[in-house]
């Protein structure tokens, strides 16, 4: 583990992950308490990764570290460089309390406060267009859009022991690199949806290329708790 990551994880345990004066950290995370938003630097992810020999996997993740750091980089909408634990701390700073993540299980549903999720996409005129994250997804078999009524929930990540021979626990999402998962395929993440695992067999998701820009385009991932 790098010294920087070790420090960040240690501070997370104390509830003190630094945000460089309440603003931006090295991973591109900006917390705006006035607007109640967290903005994260991201890029549209590639759908084909060379080491997978052209095979394309269904989308199960919204945001992940890129390959090879990210364990879910082959099935994500955007890639990020931010520490998931920094995003977790940002949500806590906005007054949210993490709930309970889920891993597998047909009927168990992830729990936690709702969070709205958007993408800010650059436009030719120099401005940006904000879309809800459901618009970035379609079913690859039916071309139907992702359901608008699916909720995103701040579950927080489980802690794990990277070395089974040591008692040291770390924030699991800072190992997997997964920030948001659509189905509870991993509990090493910060946000999960209101969908249980049983819905995975009914949806084969892909990116909506009619809405998203080309792969590699810088975008902003925006998280915002619903208005009180």
List keywords for this structure.
single chain; 228 residues; alpha+beta; 10-stranded mixed sheet; 26% strand
Q: Give the total of domains.
A: 1
What are the segments in which pLDDT stays under 50 over at least 5 consecutive residues? 1-26
Q: Overall mean pLDDT score?
A: 89
Specify Rg, calculated over alpha carbons: 17 Å
How much helix, percentage-wise, in residues?
A: 10-25%
Distance between the amino and carboxyl termini? 40 Å
Give a short account of the largest sheet: 10 strands, mixed
Total beta strands: 14
Beta-strand content estimate: 25-35%
Helix/strand structural class: alpha+beta
| Global shape | globular
Q: Enumerate how many helices there are, as a single number.
A: 3
Structure description:
This protein has 228 residues and is α+β, with helices and mostly antiparallel strands. Residues 1-26 have low confidence and may be disordered. The N and C termini lie far apart (40 Å). A hairpin with a 4-residue loop joins strand 1 and strand 2. It has one domain. It has 3 helices and 14 strands. The strands form 3 sheets. Strands 1, 2, 3, 4, 5, 6, 8, 11, 12 and 14 form a 10-stranded mixed β-sheet that branches. Strands 7-13 form a two-stranded antiparallel ribbon. The chain has helices at residues 3-13, 84-93, 173-176, and strands spanning 29-32, 37-44, 61-64, 76-79, 116-122, 128-132, 137-139, 152-154, 159-160, 170-171, 178-181, 191-193, 205-207, 218-224.
